[in-house]
Amino acid sequence: MPAHPPSSAARRLPRPDRWTLGACVIAALVLAPVASVLWIAFHPTENIWPHLAATVLPRYLRATLILMAGVAALTAAIGAGAAWLVSVYDFPGRRALALALAFPLAIPAYVGAYALVDVLDYAGPVQSALRAAFGWQSARDYWFPETRSLWAAILVLSAALYPYVYILARAAFAEQSGAMFEVARALGQGPGGVFRRVGLPLARPAIAAGVALALMETVADYGTVHHFGVQTLTTGIFTTWLDGGNAGGAAQIAGVVLALIFLLVALERISRRGARFHAAARAQRPVERQRLRGPSAALAFAACAAPVLAGFVLPVGVMLWHSAQAPDQWLAPGLMKALANTLTVAGLAALATVAAAVFLVYGIRLAGRGAARVVLPLTTLGYATPGAVLAVGLLFPLAALDHRLADGIEALTGHDPGLLITGTAFALGLAYLVRFFGIAQGAVDSAFGRIPPSLPMAARSLGRTAGGALTAVYLPLMRRSVLTALLVVFVDCVKELPATLLLRPFNYNTLATRVFELASLERLSEAAPAALLVMAVGLAAVAVVAKGQGR
Predict the structure, then answer these.
(1) Rounded CA gap, 100 and 484, in Å?
(2) What's residue 258's pLDDT?
(3) pTM
């Protein structure tokens, strides 16, 4: 009998190609840890949620919300204020400060915490100088603010994270037309009125985006709050998992963190929903900076220099001083091993992350705009997810897979291979990929969008395949954007602490974990070389970002 012809519905179903299938696999890999956390939270082996909700969870949540509120207010004020000053006014030192204001982004917040405690603690130079100057004998003779406290954590995190707001706000101010400012001044608005009524409203979406990024990093932070003794939701994950031995409880706290992050992202998008600002069709007149002199110039310089001193000069200076006190620590074998581990795992993770981002974005673009609108925003959730949460979502499924894989190999060969996934740096590299995939994806997607569609279409008409068009047209034109994404992801992998602490193999140190472990034991002279190496790597990425910030 002749075969039945395929139905019309079957004929209409497109056959997915390898690009679409690969993009879907990558998207599923990025989203899997979040789904895993939610599954473990709702199906715990031992449900301690009522106990958590009745005891520690309110304290964790309260400290986290206060921390977020303080960091949001300070980063918005410092970042937007500094960006306005260097964009609209000219004063001595402006060019150097405009670049230096981005430098704290290279400093991990936990390094700033170690530096602040070292300077302000009872045995530090500040209190020692006060006791010597006034003849005080002990802490009972005078009052000094508590160094290891919530307010100190807010200050350190704000000093490290305000560049997120500064970079975006400065770009927004640079795109505004100088004519609007001139009209506002002609209508009687002073410097403060021009900022409040013209500059700030137009830059609000950029400022909100920068504050949202800073708050995501605040929620994800572990090293800073741990050093200051502040109990947040992230420290609660560590305590419940490592000290309490309850993975389900840790996943439930991680679920609260996820809910908080998703709420934060939603609020940021809602705040921008009604804000639609468009430039005029004709060429805009650039902002003409006003020259400041005398006390006004000194005040502007001091306002811009203060965050640089707190967020960059202080931690770098303290680490350089401690490093000079013990120069032999540069030759410590543990440092070289940690450096090699860091370069290996961060380098491979950065390469894999950027390659996966290129594959996914290209595959989604080939699939059509509908797929891009759905898949691309979802794959950015990894960056919004704290490292400790990702560790919870990755470790347990990977451990189960690891044991089954080892049992299968042993059954076939009679040899126990050990833990091939969780016993090596593979799980750590996978966590880096998921955590920072959103950064690479955003840079790559933006680079694809800047390429005229006629170029790849011409390549395809000349017989190039989809892969040929990617390698012959897209990648050469996207080279700088891809290299920038590679560098930024590499630096973020080097600085990442919570996921590294939870997922690293036994006796496996990176620069970040070495700094954390030694500084936690008050051995700052031994931790200083590793901290300086982390900061040096971070400065490379900041220089790349700041290079495109204009005059």
Answers:
(1) 19
(2) 86
(3) 0.85
Check if the beta carbon of residue 315 is closer than 8 Å to that of residue 112. yes
Check pLDDT > 80 for residue 1. no
- The mean pLDDT value for 78-93 works out to 90
| Secondary structure (DSSP) of 66-88 | HHHHHHHHHHHHHHHHHHHHHHH
pLDDT band at 541 (very low <50, low <70, confident <90, very high): confident
Q: Are residues 335 and 407 in the same domain?
A: yes
d(CA 459, CA 456): 5
CB atoms within 10 A of CB 23: 27
For residues 154 and 162, give the distance between their C-alpha atoms in angstroms, rounded to a whole number. 11
Q: What is the pLDDT of residues 230-244, one digit of tens each?
A: 999 999 999 998 888
Q: Alpha-carbon distance 508 to 393, whole Å?
A: 21
Could you tell me the CATH number of the domain that includes residue 511?
1.10.3720.10
Q: Which domain holds residue 239?
A: 37-278+288-322
Nearest Cα neighbor of 353 from 422, 278, 444 is: 444
pLDDT in tens, 480-513: 888 888 888 898 899 999 999 989 988 899 999 9
Q: Are residues 410 and 273 in the same domain?
A: no
Residue 48 has φ and ψ, to the nearest 5°, of: -110, 15
498 close to 483: Cβ distance less than 8 angstroms: no
In sequence order, the β-bridge partners of residue 291 are 90
Q: Are residues 386 and 516 in the same domain?
A: yes
- Domain-located, residue 95: yes
Mark whether 192 and 309 lie in a shared domain. yes
How far apart are the C-alpha atoms of 255 and 39, rounded to whole Å?
Answer: 10
